[in-house]
Design brief:
Oligomer: single chain
Shape: globular
Strand content: under 5%
Radius of gyration: 19 Å
Length: 297
């Protein structure tokens, strides 16, 4: 019994560390945008992630296999994560890492929930409608679309907003990955296809130019972003979900927007602004409302 409590405690601390890494990856992404175009940085990140997953497959004893009927989902997922990553870096070129991290990570679950309702062709309940309304208000405050309409383009918010929709669509397809084989194998193939896509889109010459400009600072941030965050932290999240439960694990995602803001404040000297703080808190409240279990009478 004591051993089980110790293991659970380790998983909980591991989740806190993993979510902090997810938030800090926005800071690492901002640093890398000064070395190349969003397409070339995306290609290198996908390539490094793919390579870092190679030793994990035998370590986790995962079968390198996917059913034929899952190939379409795999290709769509690879296309969506390619577009999401491009928008991620494109937004960071002009936008702030902290503000973008809060906006995207807060809106992702809200947008996903809205898409789910549309696909299910059902009207939201009163609680769901309240959560979605809170999410809409959070989005308006975070993007400052009414107070400063020009900020949608100037601050990169339009790219971050589009990235949220891409991630929501991506989640629909990756959530079905276990139907076709091991989720880690699905991710491995997804990143392989994404690497090919981005190499084709970016081109060899721009990629080589980015390599020439790269230095120790670039590769440290790339290693953190691709290997520590995407491969290790995300893999740990999947294992922790199986250990402590999906609902308990998903609650730790609320740490991501705050760690993104804190990371950009510490490493990039980005001062959190009022709209980021207020919008982020409203977004977290919206997700809590949407995930609230109905009361049993």
């Amino acid at each position: 019994m004591e051993q089980e409590k110790t293991q659970t405690r380790i998983f909980l601390w591991g989740m806190i560390l993993s979510m902090t890494c997810w938030g800090f990856s926005w800071t690492a992404g901002k640093v890398m945008t000064s070395y190349g175009t969003p397409m070339t940085i995306s290609f290198i990140r996908f390539g490094c992630t793919f390579i870092s997953l190679v030793p994990l497959l035998p370590l986790l004893k995962a079968r390198f296999y996917i059913q034929r009927k899952g190939i379409l989902d795999l290709c769509v997922a690879a296309s969506m994560i390619s577009l999401y990553t491009f928008l991620f870096f494109k937004g960071l070129v002009t936008g702030k890492a902290g503000a973008g991290g809060v906006l995207v990570t807060v809106l992702n679950p809200i947008v996903s929930y809205g898409i789910m309702l549309v696909l299910a062709r059902r009207r939201p309940t009163r609680t769901e409608a309240m959560g979605l309304l809170l999410g809409a208000v959070a989005g308006i405050i975070l993007t400052r679309i009414f107070t400063e309409p020009s900020s949608m383009l100037q601050a990169g918010n339009i790219y971050f907003l589009c990235a949220s929709f891409c991630w929501a669509i991506l989640s629909l397809f990756t959530s079905r990955s276990s139907r076709y084989g091991e989720p880690i194998s699905f991710s491995f193939l997804m990143y392989f296809i994404s690497t090919i896509i981005m190499l084709f889109v970016a081109g060899i010459t721009p990629v080589m130019e980015t390599f020439q400009r790269s230095d120790t600072k670039f590769w440290l941030n790339m290693f953190f972003s691709s290997t520590i965050t995407t491969s290790l932290a995300t893999t740990f999240y999947f294992f922790a979900t199986a250990r402590i439960g999906a609902s308990r694990a998903s609650s730790f995602i609320f740490l991501v927007p705050f760690s993104a803001a804190i990371g950009s404040w510490i490493f990039l000297n980005e001062q959190p602004e009022w709209h980021t703080v207020v919008g982020g808190m409203l977004g977290v409240a919206a997700v809590l409302v949407l995930n609230r279990k109905p009361r049993v009478e």
